[in-house]
Design brief:
By secondary structure, the protein is mostly helical. It has helices at 3-9, 20-48, 54-73, 85-92, 97-117, 123-132, 134-190, 196-223. It is rod-shaped, with a radius of gyration of 30 Å.
């Protein structure tokens, strides 16, 4: 199965399964693609003008661009790949984000190879194509970075909602436990000496549930 086919067959990963650190890494990698794409074009132009070390710098920037794109596009143990419908649409849909980047990398490779090989007749045309590709590529990369940022915001909101829901459920259980403990104390008091030890347990349970309420309220105040 091809890489593209395998990616298309992978089911969407739930946002909750992706950590906040991973979202931050994806945003960083997407931003790196924007920066390195511009660096590739700039230093390729300088390399064509025989500026010292420009060719090596362009090659290095292209390698960073390729690595960042691969990390974002391909699912791995550390990265979720195209985990949402929005990302699959951006990369594989009509906008052809993935193909645009493949075309850019291939064109940059051909241009740098022509410069290295001294093919002076081919360099101007390739260089013109590379420069012309910059604006549409940058628009695509900007849109993708914005999409990763949106996914991160939605993930953070979902986690906050989930946290509040869990806290609410714990508080409900705590209240129910307090009612049971209070009733137990009443029964223990009626039982006299026989229920004294039971009353101690009931009192301790009330203390514990009260502490739980205090901790929950503090956590909910911080999460608000």
């Amino acid at each position: 199965m091809s890489t593209l086919a395998s990616i298309q067959s992978v089911p969407s990963a739930a946002r909750g399964a992706i950590s906040g650190d991973t979202f931050a890494k994806m945003i960083n990698l997407s931003g790196r693609r924007r920066f390195t794409s511009q660096r590739v074009v700039l230093y390729t132009v300088l390399a064509a003008q025989n500026v010292p070390d420009a060719l090596a710098t362009a090659r290095e920037a292209l390698g960073l661009f390729r690595a960042a794109h691969s990390a974002l596009f391909e699912q791995s143990a550390d990265m979720p790949g195209l985990f949402s419908p929005g990302l699959r649409e951006a990369y594989l849909g009509p906008a052809r984000g993935h193909q645009r980047m493949l075309d850019f990398m291939a064109l940059a490779d051909r241009t740098l190879h022509a410069i290295e090989s001294g093919w002076q007749r081919q360099v101007p045309g390739l260089l013109e194509q590379l420069v012309d590709s910059t604006t549409p590529l940058l628009a695509t990369l900007n849109a993708m970075t914005a999409l990763y940022e949106q996914e991160a915001r939605e993930h953070a909101q979902a986690m906050e909602n989930k946290l509040h829901s869990a806290m609410g459920e714990i508080r409900t259980i705590s209240k129910q436990a307090q009612v049971v403990a209070m009733n137990a104390r009443i029964v223990a008091a009626r039982a006299g000496d026989v229920g004294r030890e039971f009353a101690v347990v009931a009192t301790e349970l009330i203390s514990i549930t009260t502490n739980i309420d205090t901790v929950l309220q503090g956590a909910m105040d911080k999460a608000a």
